[in-house]
Write the structure tokens for this entry.
Amino acid sequence: MRLSSSFLPTIKEIPSEAQIASHRLMLRAGLIRQTASGIYAWLPAGLRVLRNISEIVRQEQNAIGAQEILMPTLQSSDLWKKSGRYDAYGPEMLRIQDRHKHDLLYGPTNEEMITDLFGQIVKSYKELPQILYHIQWKFRDEIRPRFGVMRGREFLMKDAYSFDIDYDKAVITYYKMMLSYLRTFQRLGVKVIPMLADTGPIGGDLSHEFIILAPTGESGVFFDADFEEQDWLNMQIDSEDEKALANLFKQITQFYAATDEKHDKSRWDQIPQARRREGRGIEVGQIFYFGTKYTQSMDIAVIGSDGNKIYPHMGSYGIGVSRLVGAIIESSHDENGIIWPDSIAPFKACIINLGVKDEACVSICEKLHQIDPENFLYDDRDERAGSKFADADLMGHPWQIIVGPRSASKNKVEVKRRKTGERIELDVEEVANYISNYNDR
Ligand code: ATP
Ligand code: MG
């Protein structure tokens, strides 16, 4: 993509409406624009990040046997009246009437709809377990939308739902999802701690929130510092191995980690003072086991081996895909701009042409652009070097390939790693290999 003809509007000034770094940077780097309170349009660079995150989430859901579907954003109120949540959910739910005076709502979550769908299709215990998910926009009429996409009103969520024959099997599915989440966040390049959490309006008695530590986070958190020393994912775990899954869960939960709603002072006091960490964090995902709450209230059962009715045990599992964009920036930026983890960056590299009127520069840039025209952004604008560097730092591309007249005449370019600032001079022909074989120390 060529910067001169692209829809990638960067802003030099600091937007006054934004209170935290990630929101400011998302506006300045041209990822989003607000269209109404808590509602955002995603511009090309932002959309690329959203898609990259979604794709990693999707792959790690599929890897544990979850199946992707797509449910609509609009829901009939009938199902919610059955489950009893239509009245219970409160003013966060956007209620709409169609021309026939039917009550509809813009889904804030999908437990009712998935339970109904499941009931239409699955009739026998032999068809269990099932894990179904979708990545879809949600609407919650938040009283105070703020921090940009972190607390929006319309936001993109991956929500998965599981159905198991009994408690024991449902808990195994819960562990599986825990593993899938740890793998997902590791691939997204962020450090996340699963913490014991309150279940809120979803109901149920077992829940973890996945928290990115950040001083601007809305949740108060308490955890054992030894948690951060563990390398869970180096334990090679087969997601079908029930013993290994149970063991992983035991390992994780032996360290104290809880959000303020679940904070247990007496357990906390038993942790050596030096290991106690108190701080703030951003919730980027939450998983719940809630048993037969919905299958029972909506009377959705399967036939068991003895011919009797069984209410499947359910769980639900959310990841805030759009919130993650903000949360990752919040934990990965500096005074010059965003520092994208390689796995989700909108562009892998930016080719910075410092001699748009110099033949050697132009020809080298064109050649480099051909390495990966989709993912190498080519800054071919006739601008000052300083403002090109500033934009590249602001947009946070993992690599900058700087092409200036002096080195171009010797067929050389300079390659800069955004994360470390490290620079190296390379022959043009070496660039592709250098970037693809690079390992962070
Ligand atoms: P919060 O406590 O932040 O309001 P929640 O616990 O109500 O979130 P869940 O029902 O657990 O949210 O939804 C799953 C995920 O969706 C959350 O972990 C979060 O990442 C994301 N999410 C929830 N509300 C919003 C919002 N208003 N804007 C952006 N993302 C959100
Ligand atoms: Mg939550």
Remarks:
- The radius of gyration is 24 Å.
- DSSP finds 14 helices and 23 strands in the chain.
- The first strand starts at residue 32 and ends at 36.
